[in-house]
Amino acid sequence: MELEAPQVSTWEGYVDWRNKPALRGRHGGMLAASFVLVAEILENLAFLANASNLVLYLRQYMHMSPSKSANNVTNFMGTAFLLALLGGFLSDAFFTTYRVYLISAVIEFLGLIVLTIQARDPSLKPPKCDLDTPCQEVNGSKAAMLFIGLYLVALGVGGIKGSLPAHGGEQFDETTPSGRKQRSTFFNYFVFCLSCGALIAVTFVVWIEDNKGWQWGFAISTISIFVSIPVFLAGSPTYKNKIPSGSPLTTILKVLIAALLNSCTYKNTSSAVVNMTSSPSNPHSGRTESQQETVKASTTTETPTSNLKFLNKAVTNKPRYSSLECTVQQVEDVKVVLKMLPIFACTIILNCCLAQLSTFSVEQAATMDTKLGSLKVPPSSLPVFPVVFIMILAPIYDHIIIPYTRKATKSEMGITHLQRIGFGLVLSIVAMAVAAIVEIKRKRVATQSGLLDDPTKPLPITFLWIAFQYLFLGSADLFTLAGLLEFFFTEAPIRMRSLATSLSWASLAMGYYLSSVIVSIVNSVTGNGTHNKPWLSGANFNHYHLEKFYWLMCVLSGLNFLHYLYWATKYKYRGTGTTN
User: Fold this and answer.
1) What's the pLDDT score for residue 132?
2) Domain co-membership, 517 together with 557
3) Residue 13: helix, strand or coil by DSSP?
4) Are residues 416 and 313 in the same domain?
5) Does 345 lie in the same domain as 322?
6) Where does the record place the region Disordered (predicted)?
7) Long-range contacts: 554-559, Cβ < 8 Å, 24+?
8) Structural contact between residues 55 and 206, judged by C-beta atoms closer than 8 angstroms
9) In terms of DSSP H, where are the helices of 397-536?
């Protein structure tokens, strides 16, 4: 009977939705991850249906100025993605990713109900403008209701983005090659499902909002996030949920503080031996199942490695305070996190380029001929191009490109995470160069047709020229986002995975913020002097020096890629099945 011990068939460090040990063969796998993918379609639909067109709602119905509307949308989007860090932290430290998703979905649902009620009831919005009634910007309790609804949605979205990718990634057995390949497929299709939700959002829901009313657009988003909850719950019997192992930030801070304080003390070498072999430093003593899994999943060392040597003082010298005693494993975990941060930083410029798709690229298209036969395409629907391209490329990448590269390189990964991210960064450089060339052509057409000073008439050039920069940036997004999600999940210590994966979304938020900063700096520098006009300001878009701005972004992206190469070539993978 002893041979039938349950430990043989359980996932160590994981429980099911009833908080009982998760069983191999019953919990986890692609079936469990498929519920996550469907939930992501519904969640991203609910989020982007409003975010993609929100600037119009704030301007037309809340009577905000164009600049204030744009700033509020940027703040909303940036806050939502930054709050993914909170969702990831809570998933690792106190709750499971399963619970964080459910709590966050309910919060987003409540926020959308508030926005739907406000959009439906005229008394909760500013009065309509007409010849007799000047426009009055939303204020007081009406503004409070608007921002409460928006930031409840942002809080919910952040929690979902911080928990859902990690929850799906946790369903696979990373100790087997087939499990790691399935996990790679999951992250590819996670981005595919993001695009599916976005496609419905920027076509069907945007059309509903423009033609039937915003209350219907908000209502569709509300229904979508509500439906995602039972869809996600339907997979409960199949999920395995990682047991939270305490605050990862506490571990990071403890190691950093211990290394700093211990560097000021000088102890004999025997204290280092005692410190590494005594109970507090024993990798297996007093560990939860999740912590034991960490030791198995990573390279366990009896002595700290030689890289980032200053952190080794956290264990090689006896700490001044017992609460600052660190294990070698904790020191190595913090080293991994610190080594990933430069990779994270190098993707911010890429996301800054992506931010141009929702600003200047849309304004470019608005000056051009937007007809496709008898159909007139609204410029706000231009994101359809990268979304459709990602949906086409993702399956091709997973089912054709990856199998071919696996055979060609005779490696499990085929294309490593860092190679994939690097390829995305190269595509962003090409995209900015293409955008500059297209803008030069657009202005040449405006000059030749005598419409340079008349921005009211569409130029005799099809908006499909803009599609090229959308396609390149859409491809860059696919390679980089999927690569980042899998890189952070695979490389991060198990107890920090949700938080690390959330860095992908934080990079997106910082890209949006950095875009606004760069535009402000460019206008400030180029507008100096009495006869100089800022590159990116004025009433006539045809007078903008947008091509110069795009060339500047191309140069910055090139320099960023060189910076990335430096860190990527130095990085050594810790995950199983990957090589540099």
Assistant:
1) 66
2) yes
3) strand
4) no
5) no
6) 277-301
7) 554/429, 554/432, 554/433, 554/436, 556/349, 557/349, 557/350, 557/353, 557/425, 557/428, 557/429, 557/432, 558/429
8) no
9) 402-409, 417-448, 467-491, 497-501, 503-526
Whole-structure pTM over 0.90, yes or no? no
Q: What percentage of the chain has pLDDT greater than the value 70?
A: 88
Containing structural domain, residue 565: 335-527+534-573
| Sheet-wide strand order for 10-15 | 21-23, 10-15, 241-242
Report d(CA 234, CA 569) in Å as an integer.
43
DSSP character string of 217-230: HHHHHHHHHHHHHH
For residues 235 and 343, membership in a common domain is answered with no
| 153, 239: one domain | yes
The reported pLDDT for the residue numbered 50 is 77
Mean pLDDT in residue range 256-274: 61
Give the angle subtended at the CA of 492 by the CAs of 320 and 327, to the nearest 5°.
25
CATH number for the domain that contains residue 542: 1.20.1250.20
- State the DSSP H helix or E strand holding residue 179, giving kind and residue range, or none if neither: helix 177-200
Q: Report d(CA 365, CA 467) in Å as an integer.
A: 9
HSE of 285, CA atoms in CB hemisphere, 13 A: 10
Residue 388 has pLDDT above 50, yes or no: yes
Which stretches of 83-176 are DSSP H helices? 84-93, 97-120, 140-169
